[in-house]
User: Fold this.
Amino acid sequence: MQARIVVILFTLLAVPSVALVTKPKQHPADATTIAGVDCNHVKSIIGKWTKATKVGSLMGAAKAMSDAANEVAANADKAADAALAVGLKVGLGGVAPSSVADAVGVARNASIDLAAKVLTLGETTLATKAAMAAAHFADKVSSKLITKITEQTHDVVVATSDVNIAASRATKKAAEAKDDALKNSKGALNMIKGVLSNIANLTKKVVAMQQRIGVISKDVKSSLGKSAKKSTFMKGQLMAYITSKSGAREQAPVWQARYDAVFTLHKTLSKLLDAVNKANSIMNASKNNMTAEEKTLKGVASAAQSSESAALGQAENLAKAEQTIRSLKTAFDICKHAVSTMMITGKQRLDDKYLDTEKRLAKHKKMGKEEHKKRADAATKRKSENRLLEGESPATDSKSQATDSESPATDSESPAMDSESPVTDSAGDAAGDAAGDEAFSRSWRRDV
Assistant:
């Protein structure tokens, strides 16, 4: 019993020892040392990561601020232009009041200053990007450069705020000048005349757009008529060619795809025409509303010719007229965009596809006729040669005469059959036709 226990103990002790000796040594995946400038410089690497993160954040903030500043500058320029336009309307002698002119000048100068600071920040950002792309970017992107980006970004923030303040002030001064003008008859009459002038200019643009829509609508309808399913070309030529046994044949799927492509563009153009008509209707309704307000203001201006006081108290009518002008401008822009989309995206693409399909169809029909004629002539020639060969053999002649006497109708029907689809009299003739068909099919696939 004791002997068995001793054996078991020795076995348990021996097995792990054997395993440790025979098992190959395993190395960790990252045990290999890679030589490089950062090798054995963990602290330096962590510092570089920290610096790269900081610089990336600063550059992202600079880009976001630059984009916002450009948008603010553009809006400020529009506000300054609008304020100056109001000032010219209410000013006497076609000159804007000094309060409005000064505010507009300040706003424009602030916008110019902002644009210059954005440009400077952009140049610094590009230089920083170039430094970041270098192998030792930590040395290239110095603390001085980081401070420069930070300060220039702050300058852009301050300049953006100045532009917003200046634009708001210009708008406010224009509104004040407008209110002051409406308190005296001459100023109110100038405002009315200015609004009437804007209405007249916008009316000319709208009328010209409506005339253009009338002309191009005819062209669009012509394109839609040619590409309709029941049109002469689509149904009478293209679809007939696809479905005919002597037409597209094995190329029918290719021509069917062309047919579908043309009709898809047809439907797209039809929808775009509907969108233009809808936009034109909205624009016309806005024009009618503006015309109604124009009529009111014209009546006031006419009455003010005999009594200047008639121009007073028209603030509400002027506000309504200006609102109709804004609405019509919006409708005009929408209609203009719809017309451009219809002509470029819709009509041009449909016309190009239609003309290309028409040209290719005519080409393949001509090729088909020529090939069919060649095959018919070749079949006729082979038939004639076979008959001559048959005529050299007496037995063949007698058999041929017997056959002719037994079924004369067969010969009378043969020319008609030959004209429709020449039939060969030997296996060699059939092989020749098959080879010709295959070559013709390859030429179709290349062209289609």
Summary: The chain has twelve helices and no strands.
